[in-house]
Amino acid sequence: MLQIQHIEKYYGSKNNVTQALDRVSFDVEAGEFLAIMGASGSGKTTLLNCISCYIPMDSGDITLDGEPVTRKNIGKFSFATCEHSFFPALTPADHREFYREHFGAFREKRFQGLMDFFQLPMNRAVRGFSTGQKNQFEVILALSQGADYILMDEPFAGNDLFNREDFYKVLLGILEPEDPYFQIKKKKLDQGELPYRINHVSWWQQELPSQEEMEEGRRNLAAYGNAVDFIVTHCCASSTQILLGGAGYRPDIETAYLEEILRNTRFRKWFFGHYHGNRNVNAREILIYEQMIRIS
Q1: How many whole angstroms separate alpha carbon 119 and alpha carbon 282?
Q2: For a FRET experiment, which of 29, 50, 190, 276 has its CA 20 to 30 Å from that of 249?
């Protein structure tokens, strides 16, 4: 677990001080997807820079699995940013060797699979890449490092090859059957052992709840004191997905929403499907595929 406790950060001199962070606190569990939102200048980048130890905080504590963040465990973080963290004079092949040497959990097959997927050159200095290619390479490094926690600070800004919606689909492993390069991309992902889903075949945009629908769900639960007998959903919460398949399943807006429900709601049983199996994940969460269960 990543724990952020009462972080404060100030900029400026004694006569002109700006407080960027005001006692910020939150926790991030394994498998959780967390979005930090705010206006420009509200401190989002400062917060991420403090978490990743790029800049010192003035007060507060950051712990990773109960330990302070030091050189010994900083490798559990990867950080993708629009300002870029790669070495511009090096080639991707050089970066691969560097990551292989310095990160014991480096996922080389994933790195190669994503490089092939985006068709980026392995032996050209990254400074010669287009803005979009640099952004793609930044994300590739973050996803391939083998980190437990991936921090992202607007890594898709200025992308000239994919619009943001398409890039997020790629990040989530969503392929479009109409794409003329569909078979090539699918083959590359298969070779790299990367998870993916196919739009209108194994994934549908309409399956994801809208913001209005999620708000309606929160209101309905609040009306009953966030206490119900049974919950029935298509997917499960992000943390439950980890129990089911480790890194094989990726969190999305739906599983993150269900994670919120899991933490804030009292219930007797939670039934869900989608994962093609029959399994009691724990005493309260039950995966159903080919079962018929009487509830009362």
Answers
A1: 43
A2: 50
- The pLDDT confidence band at residue 172, using thresholds 50, 70 and 90, is low
58 and 105 inside one domain = no
Residue 225 has pLDDT above 90, yes or no: yes
Contacts of 283 (CB under 8 A, 6+ apart): none
Of 145, 174, 202, the domain-final residue:
202
293 lies in a domain? no
User: Is it the case that residue 14 has pLDDT exceeding 70?
Assistant: yes
- Residue 281's domain comprises 205-287
Q: Report which secondary-structure segment, H or E, holds 151.
A: strand 149-153
**184 and 145 assigned to the same domain:** yes
Task: Provide φ and ψ at 183, rounded to 5°.
Answer: -65, -35
Q: 190, 141, 132: which is closest to 166 by C-alpha?
A: 132
Question: Which of helix, strand or coil describes residue 193?
Answer: coil
CATH number at residue 191: 3.40.50.300
CA distance to 10, 152, 189, 215, per residue, from 81 (Å): 22, 6, 24, 30
User: Each residue of 255-275: pLDDT tens digit?
Assistant: 889 999 999 999 999 999 988
Q: Are residues 183 and 229 in the same domain?
A: no
Number of structural domains found in the chain: 3
Are residues 265 and 231 part of one domain? yes
The whole-model pTM stands at: 0.57
C-alpha to C-alpha distance for 209 and 257, rounded to whole angstroms:
9
Q: Which residues contact 124 (CB under 8 A, 6 or more apart)?
A: 91, 92
Same structural domain, 248 and 263: yes
Computed from CA positions of residues 268, 274, 278, 280, in that sequence, does the dihedral angle turn out positive or negative? negative
